Amino acid sequence: MAVSGAKLGQGGVVRVGRGTSTITFTTLVGVGDFSFPSRTVEEIEVTSHSSPVGTMEFIPGPADFGSVSFTLDYVEDNPTDVCLLAIEASRELVQLGLKTRDGDEELFVAFLSKYERGVPVKGVQRSNVTFRVSGVVAP
Predict the structure, then answer these.
(1) Is residue 83 classed exposed, middle or buried when 0-12, 13-18 and 19+ CB atoms within 10 A define those classes?
(2) What pTM did the predictor assign?
(3) Which of 11, 52, 68, 112 has its CA 20 to 30 A from that of 100?
(4) In a 3-state reduction of DSSP, which class is residue 128?
(5) Which of 38, 34, 93, 98 lies closest to 69, judged by CA?
């Protein structure tokens, strides 16, 4: 670790949990850069005739965690590919675990909204993956 406290990002983990009573996790292999969901709070306008000095008034509404997108190495029929294809076909909600190299894992409820496999003429085969976050898993 640097004097500033900055840390190397390499070594993060993305995993997907499936099941109802017993959750079985699959660690996704070959994941590139990923970011944790960005929480956005909806703004609800509550302006009325009694709002002070003709100003608009707002209150916070529900939070939206957005999506988590990343690329990964595409290897046909490996456990990562099989898992993502099954989730895509079932359209199920899963637990999405995101962890930094030496941090605690954060778990989200999500569904797979995109699994796009690419086969370039030159270069490594990669997939683009997007999970839409529906909420957080209670600790």
Answers:
(1) buried
(2) 0.84
(3) 112
(4) strand
(5) 34
Angle at alpha carbon of residue 47, lines to 45 and 58, rounded to 5°:
40
Delimit the domains of the chain by residue range: 13-136
User: Could you give the angle at the alpha carbon of 130 between the alpha carbons of 89 and 28, nearest 5°?
Assistant: 80
Per residue in 52-109, pLDDT tens?
998 999 999 999 999 999 999 999 899 999 999 999 999 999 999 999 888 888 999 9
CATH number for the domain running over 13-136: 4.10.410.40
Owner of token pair 């970011």: 35
Q: Can you read off the two tokens belonging to residue 22?
A: 């017993």
Distance in angstroms (rounded) separating the CA atoms of residues 112 and 131: 4
User: Could you tell me which of 33, 23, 27 has the C-alpha nearest to residue 15?
Assistant: 27
Type of residue numbered 59:
I
- 136 and 90 in contact (C-beta within 8 Å)? no
Tokens 């005739």 locate to: 49
